[in-house]
């Protein structure tokens, strides 16, 4: 992720008022683009008995082999298609957001990948959801998922680099799942949250407890009161075996209403 001069995020979302036929045509066009790049298919994710269909790369092993053969993986944390995976933290955070009395509220998901957390939040009743990432293919998959699940009336997809963007609005909730794994993004993320969480709002971040978040939380603590809640879940590992994992949900609440945005040094 390369920092650029501070610029607005770029919107790749068609009008939410477009007709069902226009949305169907857009979905087919975007799916054709995805199929040119990957072997893809939809995976059903069940949220409180309500299915969400999430586009996934079917032959991930083959895709990774091609990346390796092309010498395209210089930095695994940045170059691997981590955006394409349904991370347990995304699902957990999405379900956690239902506790925030979402009716009428806005939500921004940062580092969204294919948009699982934002989609779940929309299903739970957030009035306006914005899904963002810096990876163009992540945005492609996220927009496909929005259209496939009939959520285009309340969910937009935008490119947003947290190291550079100053958005034109603040949000009641900013959510992010597994976005603390790159320590060099901790400071810009803390600044971004301080600028864009609305008065009376909060940021909600979820990460595997094994990941180190202390550095970020220290930075964020300058502008936010920070609380965390451990949540244990059972999930299926890459080897197909069930495992119990512990996650932390970090709740960041602005220390004082109306504080100057971006106060973090």
Describe this structure in words.
With 265 residues, this protein is α/β, with parallel strands linked by helices. The protein has a domain at 82-254: Rossmann fold (3-Layer(aba) Sandwich), CATH 3.40.50.150. The chain is built from eight helices and ten strands. The protein has helices spanning 20-37, 60-69, 76-79, 88-96, 116-123, 136-148, 186-196, 214-220, and strands at 10-11, 40-47, 50-57, 106-109, 128-133, 155-159, 171-177, 197-208, 224-236, 242-254. The strands form two sheets. The protein has an eight-stranded mixed β-sheet. A two-stranded antiparallel sheet has the order 2-3. Strand 2 and strand 3 (50-57) form a beta hairpin. Helix 1 (20-37) packs across helix 6 (136-148), helix 4 (88-96) runs parallel beside helix 5 (116-123) and helix 7 packs parallel to helix 8 (214-220). The longest helix is centred in the first third of the chain and has 18 residues, at 20-37. The protein is globular, with a radius of gyration of 18 Å. Residues 1-10 and 258-265 have low confidence and may be disordered.
């Amino acid at each position: 992720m390369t920092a650029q001069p501070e610029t607005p995020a770029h919107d790749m979302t068609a009008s939410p008022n477009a007709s069902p036929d226009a949305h169907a045509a857009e979905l087919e066009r975007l799916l054709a683009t995805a199929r040119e790049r990957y072997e893809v298919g939809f995976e059903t994710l069940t949220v409180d008995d309500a299915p969400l269909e999430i586009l996934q790369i079917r032959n991930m092993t083959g895709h990774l082999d091609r990346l390796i053969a092309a010498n395209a993986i210089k930095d695994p944390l940045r170059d691997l298609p981590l955006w394409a995976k349904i991370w347990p933290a995304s699902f957990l955070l999405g379900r956690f957001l239902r506790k925030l009395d979402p009716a009428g509220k806005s939500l921004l998901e940062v580092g969204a990948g294919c948009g699982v957390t934002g989609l779940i939040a929309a299903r739970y009743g957030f009035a306006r959801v914005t899904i963002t990432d810096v990876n163009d293919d992540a945005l492609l998959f996220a927009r496909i998922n929005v259209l496939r699940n009939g959520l285009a009336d309340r969910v937009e997809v935008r490119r947003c680099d947290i190291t550079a963007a100053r958005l034109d609005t603040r949000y009641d909730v900013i959510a992010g799942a597994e976005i603390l794994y790159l320590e060099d993004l901790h400071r810009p993320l803390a600044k971004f949250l301080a600028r864009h969480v609305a008065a009376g709002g909060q940021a909600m971040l979820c990460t595997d407890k094994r990941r180190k978040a202390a550095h970020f939380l220290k930075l964020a603590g300058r502008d936010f009161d920070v609380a965390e809640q451990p949540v244990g879940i059972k999930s299926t590992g890459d080897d197909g075996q069930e495992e119990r994992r512990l996650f932390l949900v970090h709740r960041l609440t602005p220390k004082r209403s109306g504080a100057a945005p971006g106060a973090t040094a």
